[in-house]
TrEMBL record, chains A, B:
Protein name: HTH merR-type domain-containing protein
Domain HTH merR-type: 20-83
UniProt GO MF annotations: DNA binding
Coiled-coil residues: none
Species, as recorded: Limosilactobacillus secaliphilus
Pfam families assigned to the protein according to its UniProt record, in alphabetical order: MerR_1 (PF13411)
Length: 146, 146
DNA sequence: TCTTTTTGTCAAATTATTTGACAAAGATAT
DNA sequence: ATATCTTTGTCAAATAATTTGACAAAAAGA
């Protein structure tokens, strides 16, 4: 029963990965032309060290693009789709904060993975633990302090 | 109180994003020379459509690189570090399966985010819900079926 | 219809990446 | 110590990928 390397957990939750315009487009299904126009209009941002160098986009921006596209497909105008998406700001960072607070990840010898999600607010002696079987079925259980 | 676009949740959990060698190196702190050598030795893989085209690495490979590097820094040889890391295989996919089974994500008007993590295995009427405040403090609670 | 918004296409210029060869450092065995 | 194998660094030429801006064209709004 071995504990997972901390770096991996952090990288997984932090996700400060940068991707190219091409990859952003491929992952979201939004065309490069659209992405560049949206950036020109100020709806999304990219990182570019110097002119002519390639643009880098964060996962956060990926989420914004997915959000805008989601509402675009529902018939909203671009600016309305942006506003709709903007009303959900903070959700992904909230998910990240949930995932990054995972206290312990263990892999048992039989391949089962135990993820300690932390204490219950109103029963601090009890931890919520996810048991994930080798075929990736998840069960949530309560476990007493150990 | 608006529900989060499904695409975003899925993309977040799925993470079938591809990154460049440069980005893999920047994110992990492992040099491009190392990464290419490890690939030559068969410890990691990359996607290359045709010769001379750029290599793409998945987030899964990013995790493997972090794992190998973790044990390398502890003094293991490269092959031993790989084996150590390999013994943890399945952990990240397990985490992914945990995150992707999230049933509902809501953002309340006051900015609080509610994440329904699903039912307790032994009390199926109760759901584990994470309440995440606007300053990203997380509280786990049990809620009855609604 | 006229105008504005939004997206597509293209080519030249620039930047980024691959590839392979070789050097060099580090580890291991004799 | 010496020789050998493993591992990483450096470099330059070839190739690929990206940016940029201009313009067209489609879509939406007035």
């Amino acid at each position: 029963m071995e504990e997972l390397a901390k770096e991996g957990r952090e990288a997984f939750a932090k996700m400060d990965i940068k991707i190219s315009l091409k990859e952003l487009s491929a992952t979201t299904g939004v065309s490069p032309s659209q992405i560049r126009y949206w950036e020109k209009k100020g709806y999304i941002k990219s990182i570019q060290q110097q002119k002519n160098q390639s643009h880098a986009y964060t996962i956060h921006t990926l989420m914004i693009v997915l959000g805008i596209n989601h509402f675009l497909k529902q018939g909203y105008t671009l600016s309305a789709a942006y506003e709709k998406q903007h009303a959900q700001r903070g959700v992904y960072r909230a998910l990240r904060s949930l995932y990054s607070r995972v206290e312990k990840v263990e892999r048992k010898d039989d391949g089962e993975v135990l993820v300690d999600l932390g204490r219950l607010a109103d029963q601090p002696a009890k931890h919520v633990v996810a048991q994930i079987s080798p075929d990736y079925q998840v069960q949530l259980t309560l476990k007493d302090e150990n």
